[in-house]
Design goal:
Elements (H helix, E strand, L loop, with lengths): L19 E14 L26 E12 L2 E2 L1 E10 L11 E10 L5 E14 L8 E11 L4 E11 L2 E4 L7 H4 L2 E11 L4 E7 L17 E7 L26 E5 L2 E10 L6 E7 L9 E6 L2 E2 L3 E2 L4
Length: 309
């Protein structure tokens, strides 16, 4: 429910680009390799690991399925699915042995849909210069839902007990038969990264400045740029309406000076298409210039400094 919300024209805000980290923990990670007649795929729940001798061949197709269990250390749900080919080259000029396209579907713990990331990876080998120092070369080309407009790069930061089986094994037995763990780390930029662009006093809608600072316990109105879904949805190419307001799901969190800050209201800014109004009640803060930060759909935004008296 929106409490005492004041609808004012949105001040102009410049588009910026910030980079943020998204750490995704996967569980029940299983590789399924093609094996024989496709009509036999998924016909048994028996654990068929490890692959029989001689199964692995050059240019062999395979699929990976895994569960999303946490993001940034917070509980999450969803699925990781990728498909591609194994490159059995045995040559030092191509140290990477898997080429895959992937989709990472992300949900809240209660299975609320948030959005997805998609991209490609070349597994094995060292990371590219400037990429996270993990395994493989990962690229994020874009996203859906709350992640529309993102792009970036990533790496496999650690894996254990990955299970390899054949496509004859029914994927519905994946959790019962077990699988490995993989930690993926992405660095994302673009419209899907939430960013505070302005802060106002809720009492009179004046801008927070050094001469008009915030006070501990005060409610501020934050203008943020993001791509969060709303209810009702904003139709592509249209601006947010004033009636009814486009409300944002409760996956938006805030912090001030490193402490949690209560999110009071969250809605699309009427007349805009990528700006949101987030009302935040400040905790008790010492005088100075603490940082405000918004996290939405598990994606943390950059720090925004405010003067506090």
């Amino acid at each position: 429910m929106l409490l005492g919300i004041i609808l004012c024209p949105a001040p102009a805000a410049a588009q910026t680009s910030s980079e943020t980290k998204l750490s995704v923990q996967l569980d029940n990670f299983v590789w399924y390799y093609e094996d024989g007649d496709p009509h036999n795929y998924g016909t048994t729940t028996q654990n068929l690991s490890p692959l029989p001798a001689g199964t692995a061949k050059a240019m062999m197709r395979n699929v990976i399925i895994a569960d999303v269990v946490s993001i940034g250390g917070k509980p999450a749900r969803g699925a990781y699915v990728s498909h591609g080919v194994a490159l059995r080259v045995g040559s030092s000029d191509l140290p990477r042995n898997q080429l895959h396209e992937f989709v990472l579907d992300i949900q809240t713990p209660d299975m609320g849909q948030i959005g997805g990331l998609f991209g490609t990876f070349l597994s094995s080998g060292s990371a590219a210069p400037g990429a996270p120092r993990g395994g493989g070369t990962w690229a994020v080309f874009g996203g859906t839902g709350a992640y529309a407009g993102v792009r970036g790069q990533g790496a496999n930061m650690g894996a254990s007990n990955q299970r390899v089986t054949t496509m004859k094994e029914d994927t519905t037995a994946r959790r019962a038969n077990g699988g490995g763990k993989v930690l993926l780390e992405f660095y994302l930029t673009g419209a899907g990264v939430p960013e505070i662009v302005s802060a106002f006093h809720a009492a009179d809608f004046s801008r927070v400045t050094a001469s008009n600072p915030a006070r501990p316990g005060e409610t501020l109105v934050l203008q943020a740029r993001a791509n969060w879904p709303t209810n009702p949805p904003r139709q592509p190419g249209m601006d947010f309406a004033e009636d009814p307001l486009h409300l944002v799901p409760d996956f938006v969190e805030a912090s001030a000076g490193g402490s949690p800050a209560e999110v009071v209201n969250r809605a699309g800014w009427p007349g805009e298409h990528d700006l949101y109004r987030i009302d935040v009640r400040l905790p008790n803060l010492a005088p100075g210039e603490p940082t405000l930060q918004l996290t939405g759909a598990y994606v943390p935004g950059p720090a925004y400094r405010i003067p506090v008296r």
